[in-house]
Amino acid sequence: MINVYSDPRCLEHRAPAGYPEHPGRLEAVLEAVEEQIQQGEGWRLMSPCSHSAAQELAEAVHDAEYLRRFRRAVERGDGLLDSADNPLHAATWDAALAAVEAALTAADAALSGAGGGDDVHFAAIRPPGHHAERSTAMGFCYLATAALVAEHWRRSGLQRVAVLDFDVHHGNGTQHLFEDRGDILFLSTHQSPFYPGTGAREERGVGDGLGATVNVPLVEGSGAEAVNAAWDEILAPALEAFQPEGLVVSAGFDAWRQDPLGGLRWELDTFEGLGERLGAFASAHCAGRMVSVLEGGYDVSHLGALVTAYLQGCSRGVGHAAQLGS
User: Fold this and answer.
1) CA 282 to mean position of chain CA atoms
2) SS3 labels along 134-198
3) For residue range 184-235, what is the model confidence (pLDDT) as tens digits?
4) What backbone phi and psi angles, to 5 degrees, belong to 313?
5) What does DSSP assign to residue 51?
6) Catalytic machinery residues
7) Could you tell me whether strands 83-87 and 246-251 are parallel, antiparallel, or unpaired per DSSP bridges?
8) In sequence order, what are the residues at sequence separation of 6 or more whose Cβ sits closer than 8 angstroms to the Cβ of residue 208?
């Protein structure tokens, strides 16, 4: 079963005309999910979602003054937070928190082994989160959703959690939050040089986290061959060495060849194949504990199909690993 988690509050965050991060992105994904449900293809949508730990986790991961500043800016009716990348609306705080709540709901389902460990769990949410740092909003991101899920799993008893980010933009926020920790492995494929200017191979973590950051920068125009090589030669070996008990995926779809904000050349089957690899790994090594959260992806006309292909790949990978283990 492919389980999708969302919340109507995520649609309420608005941006001025011309911003690529807008409600139509999530609407396109939810329309694709509904189409799969109507076809009886083993899909399920859970919405709305609530989670009592969302506020507490946000306060644990982000600087308290940043959260106060964020809420005050919304209440005052400010138009931006920290930079022009981060437009504010009366519903922005609620939407960002709802995104976290939906992702945490998905994470709890994965942690509990819903579906016997053979289910796929995906948070269809916005605004995205992987650029948000401890005290700074960046790149359409306000709360570091994937990082909050990883922290939640650690607090729930998992000793080692991995976060893999395949958005076309480097997840500087997630790296920033965990770079000094050895209990959370951060891995990223991303276009480079590109926004936000981080993610060099030499960035491997600091202090106790040295070696727990793995960056795979890809040159503009890279396609399936490059990401498949990255998986075989770098990502899979790093994951196998770390042996995570849970896998969080920052699933950005702006590496798609027609995305207006990206410069990579991934095809539909590139996302499907990566999903299959991730699903198989999680099933074989993490008892199926994997949750994916929507990050970027700005070609609205194709976004639903890209998400569908990725999740079908995840499901196939989980099923294949389960067959091998039986």
Assistant:
1) 15
2) CCCCECCECCCHHHHHHHHHHHCCCCCEEEEECCCCCCHHHHHHHCCCCCEEEEEEEECCCCCCC
3) 999 999 999 999 999 999 999 999 999 999 999 999 999 999 999 999 999 9
4) -65, -45
5) -
6) 131
7) unpaired
8) 180, 181, 182
Packing angle, helices 268-285 and 300-325, rounded to 10: 30
**Phi, psi torsion values for 321, nearest 5 degrees:** -65, -40
Under DSSP, the state recorded for 9 is: G
How far apart, in whole angstroms, are the C-alpha atoms of residue 307 and residue 113? 22
Pick from 258, 296, 86: nearest CA to 171: 296
Q: Which two tokens stand for residue 91?
A: 């519903």
DSSP states of 192-243: SS-TTS---TT----GGGTTSEEEEEE-TT--HHHHHHHIIIIIHHHHHHH-
For residue 274, give the 3-state DSSP assignment: helix
Asked if 131 and 173 count as a contact pair (C-beta separation under 8 A), the reply is yes
Please tell me the distance from the alpha carbon of residue 16 to that of residue 22, in angstroms, as a whole number: 9
Please give the structure tokens belonging to residue 85: 């990348």
Tell me the one-letter amino acid at 148. L
Tokens of 315: 């499901």
pLDDT digits (tens, 9 = 90+) for 39-88: 987 999 999 999 999 999 999 999 999 999 999 999 999 999 999 999 99
Task: Give how far the C-alpha of residue 76 lies from the chain's centroid of Cα atoms, to the nearest Å.
Answer: 30
